[in-house]
Structures are given as C-alpha cells and as structure tokens.
Write a structure and sequence with these properties.
Layout lengths: L4 E7 L5 H12 L4 E3 L8 E8 L6 H5 L3 E9 L1 E3 L8 E4 L10 H9 L3 E5 L8 E2 L2 E2 H6 L9 E14 L2 E8 L5 H12 L3 E11 L2 E2 L6 H6 L10 H8 L2
Parallel strand pairs: 3-12
Antiparallel strand pairs: 1-3, 2-3, 4-11, 4-12, 5-6, 7-10, 8-9, 10-11, 12-13
C-alpha cells in the first residue's frame, strides 16, 4: 500500500531541508516527497514533509502563516544575514550594549503590519531566471525589488545585549534573516540572525513534530504520517 500524507519533522541544525526530504524518501522507500517551506541549515524547527499524493498540497502549505522564535545579535552583519556568512559590517561603537528595553520594543512595533521587505541576496528568489544565492556565491550583487509581506505579531521575549530574542507571526515570503538586519538598522547598528526555530505553520505545531532519530529508529514510523484525506479540513485554518 502506498504512503500518502504529511509528516511533521523537527529539523535539527546543520542540515538542509532537502537533506530531510532525501532522508524521508530513503526511510519509507517513496519517490514523491517534498517539503512545505525551506528552513536554512542553521535554523531548526517545524518542517512539513509531504509524501506521495500529499505533494499536491505544496502551494497551500507554503502559503500558510508561520511563527518563529528568533535570536538577533547586534554588533555585526554578514553576507547571508546569519552566522553562515562572512562579516561585512561592524558597529563603530558599543552603544548597542546600552539600548533600553523601550527603544528595542519601539523598534519592534514599527515592523508590525504590512511592510516592504527586500529579499536578501542569499535567497531562492529569481533574478532573470537565476536564483539570487547562486549569483551571490559568484560575488554578484543585483538590484532586488521589495515585496509586500505581513508581520502579525512581533514580541520581545528576552534581552541580553548584544542578543535580543523575539517571537513573530508572519506571512509567507518573509525572511527572518532580513528582518534581523532591518531591525538592527532601525536601532542604528548592524545585526544578524544568530538562532531561529520555526514553531508553527498554519495550525501545525512544533510540539507535534518528530525528531529524525525517532523516525529512523521506530519500526512503525509510517504511523507518524498524517493522512491528509481525513484531517486536512480540520487542521488547516
């Protein structure tokens, strides 16, 4: 009997979303496997894996709102907007260590609502048919048009300068890496994303996701797969 449905995976750091897809393809011996929205290698959290006929739901899942717990570090910026890149800008002073909670929260509020965000060069957005990250790896910078994205909530959870931890709920297409860069600029300093966990996609929650070692070591892990023909209407909000 063919396997069709959705598997919620808690992606660990250090691997790509495609690595998880390949792992699932081999684990269950199925060819049609996809994911519902890329997580960068350094990011962790909820990755929705679609198996078999469920791959037809790809665009619906990718279009769902998402929530993240992110850590921004002030003081320097990088080529990629996170720790994977090379340092390209450093603060000229340590004033960022003296920022007040009020200043940080005021800056956070300014991002809530519909905003224009310029996608980072290290992204899968296309320019004249080529992925931006491929051009970036060649040292090529190209103009990027801003895109309308929406931030429904942005709540400061912890401040331990130079780091700021925040929760955010946002629409499809928003780059948390770029949000950290823009957040830092709003505060007057270079910044980057230092940690990130995706905690939900639509009504799918991280606490229902499986670790990869669970999937590998459980002989009945095919039972972890949610059958979309029975639960789709009740789960997607």
């Amino acid at each position: 009997m063919s396997l069709n449905g959705i598997l919620l995976v808690n992606k660990p750091t250090g691997i790509t979303s495609h690595d998880v897809v390949d792992f699932i393809r081999k684990r269950f011996g199925v060819k049609k496997v996809g994911h519902g929205g890329t997580l960068d290698p350094l990011a962790t959290g909820l990755l929705i894996i679609m198996i078999g006929k469920a791959t037809k739901l790809s665009q619906k899942i990718i279009g769902l709102d998402k929530t993240y717990l992110a850590e921004m570090t002030l003081g320097f910026s990088t080529t990629t907007g996170d720790l994977a890149g090379e340092v390209i800008g450093k603060a000229i002073d340590t004033g960022y260590l003296k920022l007040t909670k009020g200043q940080i929260e005021e800056a956070a509020v300014s991002f809530v609502g519909e905003i224009d965000q310029v996608p980072p060069m290290y992204s899968a957005v296309k320019y004249q048919g080529k992925r931006l990250y491929k051009l970036a790896r060649l040292g090529i910078q190209v103009p990027r048009a801003s895109r309308k994205v929406k931030i429904y909530e942005l709540t400061i959870e912890n401040i331990n300068l130079p780091t700021v931890v925040f929760d955010t709920k946002c629409s499809r297409g928003l780059y948390i890496r770029q949000l950290c860069v823009d957040f830092g600029l709003k505060l007057g300093y270079p910044a980057h994303l230092s940690k990130m966990v995706r905690t939900s996609v639509g009504a799918f929650k991280i606490d229902k996701a499986y670790e990869m070692n669970e999937i590998m070591n459980n002989s009945n892990s095919e039972n972890f797969v949610l059958k979309t023909d029975r639960i789709w209407d009740s789960i997607i909000k």
